[in-house]
């Protein structure tokens, strides 16, 4: 199933009144997520889809959708079904509201086996096929269109085989996230683990500067990792991030040393209770502006800003910048 792109709003806030020892003056980026799809895509059930208003043959439509991926971490392809029955039907319902014929991302080379562009076999018994389809009449690509053969099916859309060279409209979908070199995909985000690519240990601000300097696709930025830590699923994600590492690792959280208040660099509060702090943490008497995850007990603890540690960078979507 394709995933919706997150829309994030970036605010730059300079933290003042930090004690000299911590050297923690910084910009803080606030990321606010939204469930809306970015133009020209529209939300259909749980996915983001683009219904074209131009006509291309099948191969041209494949190339057009791929061109929309430029500068983004999500692969964009011709729409494929067989992921989720509700989403499949939602797409066909949209098609049924028009008189258009749309390419979908499936084809066959010899008529023996139909494949989606991601390599999955098209289910020949799926309910989205119309009666008698696919009929293997030399038509090697897949379309979706409204069936008007009978009154009973006039408002339904189905899938058919079709000649690949005909110019038709098409549907693109936003697919799975693709991570840049050295980043790994965990959950719905891309992360870079400094110890896996031979980077030296750095102070917290040095680690953050390195993350922010990384080359990432247009429309994204990289920073120290921001974690959820709200439920067991978040902690499972952390275990995946740390893997078998025995390092203590910088992440994107800090404390204003003038008060005992911890927060993530995206602006969310990091509670003093209700999360898995190490037994002696947080120690609000320390001159600190950060937290890291203890690989020994999988707990958070606060530490001095100038301790050199490994770190994790995270790539996130950004839309607008403003200052306050």
From TrEMBL:
Q: Which InterPro entries match?
A: C-type_lectin-like, C-type_lectin-like/link_sf, C-type_lectin/snaclec_domain, CTDL_fold
Could you name the domain of life of the organism this protein comes from? Answer: Eukaryota
The UniProt keyword set, sorted, is: Signal
Which Gene3D superfamilies does UniProt cross-reference here?
Mannose-Binding Protein A, subunit A
Q: PROSITE patterns recorded for this chain?
A: C_TYPE_LECTIN_2
- The signal peptide here is 1-24
| Pfam families in the cross-refs | Lectin_C
Instruction: List each copy of the C-type lectin domain by range.
Output: 44-173, 186-314
Q: Which PANTHER family match?
A: MANNOSE, PHOSPHOLIPASE, LECTIN RECEPTOR RELATED (PTHR22803)
Q: What is this protein called?
A: C-type lectin domain-containing protein
- Species, as recorded: Meganyctiphanes norvegica (Northern krill)
Lineage, broadest ranks = Eukaryota, Metazoa, Ecdysozoa, Arthropoda, Crustacea
